[in-house]
Amino acid sequence: MFRIFSLVSLLTLLSLSSAGSSTVKSENFVGKDTATFVSSFEADNNRCFKCHGQEKYQYANATLGTQVTDMMCVERIIHKNEFYSSNHKSFSCTDCHSEEYTKFPHPGQLRMEQMYTCLDCHGGDVKFAKYHFEEIDSEYRKSIHFKMENEGFTCWKCHNPHTYKISVRTATNLKETIAYDNAICLNCHSDYSRFQLLTDRAEINIIKEHDWLPNQASHFASVRCIECHTKINNNIPVSHLILPKEQAVRRCNECHSQNSILMASLYKFESKAQRHDGFFNGIILNSSYVIGANRNEYLNYISLVIFFVVMLVIIVHIAFRLKNRSKNIKE
Questions:
Q1: Is the pTM higher than 0.90?
Q2: 56 vs 37: CA distance, rounded Å
Q3: Do 119 and 205 belong together in one domain?
Q4: Which residues have C-beta within 8 Å of that of residue 2, sequence separation ≥ 6?
Q5: CB-facing half-sphere around the CA of 319: CA atoms within 13 A
Q6: Is residue 33 within 8 Å of 85, Cβ to Cβ?
Q7: Which of 235, 250, 265 is the last residue of a domain?
Q8: Residue 40: is it exposed, middle or buried by C-beta count within 10 angstroms (0-12/13-18/19+)?
Q9: From CA 228, how far away is CA 266, in angstroms rounded?
Q10: Radius of gyration of the chain (CA)
Q11: Is 178 in contact with 224 (CB distance < 8 Å)?
Q12: What are the tens digits of pLDDT across the range 118-175?
């Protein structure tokens, strides 16, 4: 039964979002505009969306003089509403893709076109300096993912440029952020058909691999994969140094303690000053009790005062006992 709950939790994360698409409400992310956003390149983009914005498309077969309806490859479907809710919504398709794509049928050699990387646009630009793209790239190059670059691993394997949104972590949308970020990982790690595009390794059973983790379903729904599988870097919004599984966090006290690693990653936006109840890690605990994590600084002080008062009473009591004993001996 426990495994069923864990699996349901895992599937819920996938249903909420994926690296290629997301059903998370766009108001939870940077930019308030939604699919009602009107692009200055709308007419040009519609030329592409006419085919790539749906599951089927039509074209004229001039040789046979017929109209053909065909299925669009799922990897080539870009939903219009999702694109115009993404961070790249203000772009024209041909800003990133060759002008030759305006011809149909598309020239076959375009499939060999080299895709831009994040640094091609965002690197060295002061407008994006706060995101530290150069440092993100440096971290990625130390990551286990970089080792698969020759097999085709790129930024786009995790961050679909047509739908990607930079999430803003707040106390009100934290669950959505966790689901969105985890779905980026699960897009490959729980989909073997996609996983096989990058490696010949055997399929990984996520539930079985995390058998050691207590209350598995709750962890999957409340913590991002990267909290345990990356090295924390406070200089960038999200750590990109993915560690080998042998170096993943496995000790409870690394999260459930006063100096929780979660406070330096997932909850770093939530300053201690904002938690007026005095509980350490109060934001991660809700109504649960975890040994070592539910400490309260005020109760700590009160406990110390009580301890010293008790010790003082004991010392005074011993002093009186010794004094009375000495007096009795003299008599």
A1: no
A2: 25
A3: yes
A4: 216, 217
A5: 6
A6: yes
A7: 250
A8: exposed
A9: 11
A10: 28
A11: yes
A12: 888 888 888 888 888 999 999 999 998 998 887 778 888 888 999 988 876 666 778 8
